[in-house]
Amino acid sequence: MKAFPAGFLWGGAIAANQVEGAWQEDGKGPSTSDMQPNGVFGELVERKEGDSALKDVAIDFYHRYPEDVALFAEMGFNCLRISIAWTRIFPNGDESTPNEAGLAFYDDLFDELAEHGITPLVTLSHYEMPWGLVKEYGGWGSRETIRCFEHYARTVFSRYQNKVKLWLTFNEINMSLHAPMTGVGLPNSSSKAEVYQAIHHQLVASALAVKACHEIIPDAKIGNMLLGGLMYPLSCKPEDVFETLQQNRSWAFFGDVQCRGAYPGYMLRYFRDNGIEIEITDADREALRTTVDFISFSYYMSGCVTADEALNEQLRGNILSMVPNPHLPSSEWGWQIDPLGLRTLLNMMWDRWQKPLFIVENGLGAKDHVEADGSIHDDYRIAYMNDHLLQVREAIEDGVEMLGYTSWGPIDLVSASKAEISKRYGFIYVDREDDGSGTLARSRKKSFFWYRDVIASNGANLE
Ligand code: BG6
């Protein structure tokens, strides 16, 4: 079987708020994630002295990263996707001078990665923003947040210009439609018009960050990041097919703006039909013309769409309001497993945007069982990833240009949707339970050795 292209980036992806812990250390300010101890869809909880959340310590990556990076290197990673916690750099979000201790932490982390030959891929904002910006300005509802974000982006581009050449702007930028507080710092009860205005501000900020990155680090590449929400029609009824087109546009719209540099006509019609008026200035239009260098995305599952409202109400299930596919199995968390869907999605994105693609999240959240001798036989995770990677290889054969693959959560971490650690994605097990007990010790699962062999053979050993 064919291997992956030479220079393919292999590794894993983590996010600051799901691994670092140290939520109040070295001058870090509170973020929206700190105010959502129950997960990205959860209600806001104003933190009081003495209360605690699993994410406060998470897996203590802040203090243990040298051990973790060494384990990633042992698997042969040549890439690690991380995110910078904006609140380590600007605790309130609107300061003019950055917090040196926060900057120093990431300097040290990048140095550690460099020593192991691991290329960092850095997300500027992964499901969190400074709480100060939410309280004082109303999050991305305000143009002031664009200014603060651009200042933050320019600060980290300047500081890490010799260490980081691969960047991403906003994680799963389309998730704001489903989780407004997490995505754009707006109350979850906000109207569609308010959410789309905030999204517009974020799209402008993303484009300004791309421009700044090109100016400050000319040899860097910067991409967007989408939740690849692939939808199929539940039947071949033309109404179902058309509704599916619309649903796929609800996420592809973000990619259209970020890759083509302007709002697509179907979106302007959606705004008109729904009485949504967005303030888009000439300066905004000019800013949006700067497009991303590559497209990155997450892929976990696919779903179905029906135009039949009654059926919709009856069947609609998981977080993205998808209708379940009767032909697919599901994970323990109800996420439908669809490896071929990944090939379909890669081809769709390539056909649509003709920019290199980077899968920056994919994996199986599952409960692991630790045997008496400490071993963990996670064959289900191996099967999931093997089957998905085979489809990636097929897509490459189809002519899709690909930069790399970073699996989600190469080390167990706190889940975004439920803020629990028992939903494990890792090749590396972390001894911690949902109630916060455990030693935080790391150990290698069976999949650790499997992924090491996949990387060593550049994908040639997949079966
Ligand atoms: C993506 C996010 O939505 O999916 C990650 O970018 C998240 O932050 C991942 O962890 C898996 O979701 P969950 O809810 O299982 O953690």
TrEMBL record:
One of its GO terms (biological process) is carbohydrate catabolic process. Belongs to the glycosyl hydrolase 1 family. GO terms for molecular function: beta-glucosidase activity. The active site is at 361 (nucleophile). It comes from Kosakonia cowanii JCM 10956 = DSM 18146. One of its GO terms (cellular component) is cytosol. This is 6-phospho-beta-glucosidase. InterPro entries: GH (IPR017853), GH_1_N_CS (IPR033132), Glyco_hydro_1 (IPR001360), Glyco_hydro_1_AS (IPR018120). Keywords: Glycosidase, Hydrolase. Signal peptide: none annotated.
